């Protein structure tokens, strides 16, 4: 239950110094909807959890599979844990950039890291981390390496790229 | 697409006159949650549609069945149409009383009427009406009279009571 | 990599017949999110009401104002009534095209019509209609013609174009 | 016929052994709504974050204040961080008991711990933890000890009781 897991790993460099090559982020972009605000006048915190899901689904397409296909092939991937640290309030119609990365994968479970920023990354709205496992339709734990090797390869390739 | 369907049928009588016996309403009571407000400082209108669903599910229990059982027995009941007229804004933590009534039923479809009020009905927050059909798990239209006579009887009894 | 809504002009013509000039629709495009599905395996009906709001906000930008600016200038525009007829179920990750049109406007209130289709309009997912008024921050009814003539002009121009 | 959340005292004792006196939990009880399920056939994980908020608001009433009053007195209390670990899936119409406790408080911020169980606590659905600060309406950090001593006392008393 400790949440020290998050480091924002700010790679922004305003000074135009020579940089080591930067891994390209997968970024999911969307605007905050009016129906996502609350009477505090900002986006309700529960929506970040929904945005993280949208970003994961975007990531799966970006790396060459899709959560829709996975479910059709009999894999469901529930959330095991979810962490979010809120840093700056997001207002109605603000555009957010969700940088998403697979930071752990072992064929049975995976971890995802999120950074929510504005376009030029000068504002950090939130950081987050979630853990997910894989289940069969009968809700039994499966190892993709055995049950769905082609999906395993896609996840492993993406994870390896990042590490 | 015409929405003239709604009459609030206010039966309130502050003067304690002699009244013809009044049908007893089925009432679903709940409070407005903070996460249901928007930056207008009131409950977002989309939540009334969710509240109507909660009230329908409450009604099904109140009349002797339950939507959970219906689904387990292979009946799903999607929404065909939905109307809501918003009359008074609902604020955070306000308690709403949703008066709900089956106003039409014919074994293939049913109509429900909603009145959202405060406790003593001095405030009318909203009125609504929705139409629903019955489908099998294979998404085919079914007539409860044939497919599920015991559920048909429950709906018919409630509808007859009201008409 | 973005999830942007776009404005598009309807150019579809299956028969290549000579057509009378057709009014150009304003279209809001978006995908159904996983968190919008319910255990019926389809998008929950309450989300259409949220989508309609997103489409209205898209329309306001498309015609030259924005709901954000309107609120900043002291105009809020609550929903007076909402109607939706559900015709075809929408599944996870389906792309929907929400055709939106101002069908009535008189400086005090306006009506909007919605058609939710797939890309080539071969599927009609839903149709809807909503009514809205204008309030000051103090929740008093206002006539845009007097209080905000520049916004009045924008709405009137769009409405006149359609009628 | 109501759907009320209740406060209850934990009295469960399977073994009827002599127990050391146990702190009484504040418990928020509610049922999972149909509109909270997703196509996995379970409650969508984002709803736990909303339930935690409902439980916090319940707790504030239980200890002698209310979030509504706090906002009216100029205190808003945004979420700084949120953690949830999902242990057992919750299905439609399942009743959940959210045990909630203030585990840290220092006039500037507080931490809350959540345990989501069934009625006899034989099932653990989820555990969670969140951190919150206090802001003025102008979104400046405030210390309740100075700005709102009567609210400070209530929070401090509850925190001290638990520690």
TrEMBL record, chains A, B, C, D:
Lineage: Bacteria, Bacillati, Bacillota, Clostridia, Lachnospirales
UniProt keyword annotations, A-Z: Hydrolase
Keyword Metal-binding among record annotations: no
Protein name stated in the entry: Acyl-CoA thioesterase
UniProt cross-references to SUPFAM superfamilies, sorted A to Z: Thioesterase/thiol ester dehydrase-isomerase (SSF54637)
CDD domains in alphabetical order: 4HBT (cd00586)
Family, per entry: Belongs to the 4-hydroxybenzoyl-CoA thioesterase family.
Cross-referenced InterPro entries: 4-hydroxybenzoyl-CoA_TE, HotDog_dom_sf, YbgC/YbaW
Superkingdom of source: Bacteria
GO MF entries: fatty acyl-CoA hydrolase activity
């Amino acid at each position: 239950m400790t949440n020290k897991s998050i480091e924002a790993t700010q790679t922004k460099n305003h000074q135009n110094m020579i940089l080591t090559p930067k891994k390209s982020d997968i970024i999911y972009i969307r605007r905050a909807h009016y129906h996502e605000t609350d009477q505090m006048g900002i986006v309700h915190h529960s929506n970040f959890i929904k945005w993280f899901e949208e970003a994961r689904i975007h990531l799966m397409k970006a790396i060459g599979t899709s959560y829709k296909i996975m479910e059709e092939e009999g894999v469901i991937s529930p959330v095991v844990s979810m962490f979010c640290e809120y840093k700056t309030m997001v207002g109605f119609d603000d555009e957010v950039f969700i940088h998403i990365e697979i930071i752990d994968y072992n064929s049975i479970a995976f971890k995802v890291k999120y950074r929510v920023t504005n376009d030029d990354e000068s504002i950090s709205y939130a950081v987050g981390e979630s853990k997910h496992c894989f289940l069969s339709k009968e809700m039994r734990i499966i190892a993709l390496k055995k049950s769905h090797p082609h999906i395993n390869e896609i996840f492993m390739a993406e994870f390896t790229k990042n590490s």
